Amino acid sequence: MRAFGESLVAYRPPIDTRSVSEMRQIPPNGFPEKALNFLTPHQKWGIHSTYSENLLMLTLSRGGPIVWISETDARELTIVDNDWVEVFNANGALTARAVVSQRVPPGMTMIAMRYRITLRNAL
Predict the structure, then answer these.
(1) CATH architecture of 34-122
(2) 17, 76, 100, 111: which could join 81 in a potential S-S bond, CB 3.0 to 4.6 Å?
(3) Where are the domains of the chain?
(4) pTM of the model
(5) What is the pLDDT along the chain (123 residues), one digit of tens a residue?
């Protein structure tokens, strides 16, 4: 962290949304969109571990980033299990496989915290 000019924990204010206001005015691209609450729980095999992205561990899951979504929201957005979806907000975007589940309440979506895209699992 010292290489980046930080030695102690520092407060960083939220992003100024005025700087991305042009992005908010972009019309829809024809695909269905819906605002959902976004949760980031710990991933199943990755708490305090660097071994969550090796080939053996990736075979225990779907092998990449996944987004959990409720059956109700998926039906409304015409998403079926294992579809590729794009999740975005003012801070960025990600593409992942959809996991349609009744375990997720309507109006909410989840992706595992600290999922890393590396050369090994991007190929």
Answers:
(1) Beta Barrel (2.40)
(2) 100
(3) 34-122
(4) 0.64
(5) 677 666 666 677 776 767 766 666 666 677 778 888 888 887 766 666 666 666 776 677 666 788 999 999 999 999 999 999 988 876 778 888 999 999 999 999 998 776 554 444 444
